[in-house]
Amino acid sequence: MGTLGSLVAMSSSGSRAERDANVTWLTQDAYDRLNAELEELSGPARVEITRRIEAARAEGDLKENGGYHAAKDEQGKMEARIRQLTQLLREAKVGTPPTADAGVAGPGMVVTVRYADGDEETFLIGSREEAAVADITVYSANSPLGQALSGAAAGESRSYTAPTGKEITIELIEAKPYLS
């Protein structure tokens, strides 16, 4: 629902556009949704998985106890997600990226591009968290396309190398903030 950028911390060097592209920008809705997920995982979900592990442990031999191993695996994944959300929310900035006002492509921006063959595509430069809930195609700011567009203004052409090795040229038609 909100605007999410890359999961890279902002550095103190580089241009403003480079720093803005390295910040995770969240709308208030996205921040609230991720914070609610963190609270659920850290509270009731953690208690429930601990209860399941204890119940499986009480069944006896742990070597051949599938329920115990499944619960431990789930606990590990949940703890990893808690760490990821904690870091994301600690480092994120709530609001609109400064580049949004300037119509510059970057995380949190819906961009329209034209390919060399004349085809146009509109998508959000965001993150995998955003892709899970957005009703628009989302490309990572860290993808070759996202990196090529970062800092571009309308009318600028940029090139990038696709995963297939093909060199692709695009022209930025428009960049506007994503409104969930």
N-to-C series of helices and strands: HEHHHEHEEHEHEE
Secondary structure: helix percent: 40-55%
CATH fold-level label of the largest domain: Chitinase A, domain 3
**CATH homologous superfamily assignment of the largest domain:** Transcription elongation factor, GreA/GreB, C-terminal domain
Strand order of the largest sheet: 5-4-3-7-6
Rg estimate, integer Å: 21 Å
Structural class: alpha/beta
Outline:
The protein is an alpha/beta fold and 180 residues long.
Can you characterise this structure?
- The protein is α/β, with parallel strands linked by helices.
- The protein folds into two domains: 62 residues, Transcription elongation factor, GreA/GreB, N-terminal domain (Helix Hairpins); 81 residues, Transcription elongation factor, GreA/GreB, C-terminal domain (Chitinase A, domain 3).
- It is elongated.
- The protein has a five-stranded mixed sheet. The chain has a two-stranded parallel sheet with strand order 1-2.
- The N and C termini lie close together (5 Å).
- 42% of the residues lie in helices and 21% in strands.
- Helix 2 packs antiparallel against helix 4.
Key terms:
7 strands; 42% helix; 2 domains; 180 residues; 5-stranded mixed beta sheet; alpha/beta; Chitinase A, domain 3; disordered N terminus; Helix Hairpins
Topology (SSEs and partners):
Blueprint (H helix, E strand, L loop, with lengths): L15 H6 L3 E2 L1 H15 L1 H14 L8 H26 L1 E2 L4 H4 L6 E7 L4 E7 L1 H4 L6 E3 L3 H6 L7 E5 L5 E11 L3
Parallel strand pairs: 1-2, 4-5
Antiparallel strand pairs: 3-4, 3-7, 6-7
Helix pairs in contact: 2-3, 2-4, 3-4
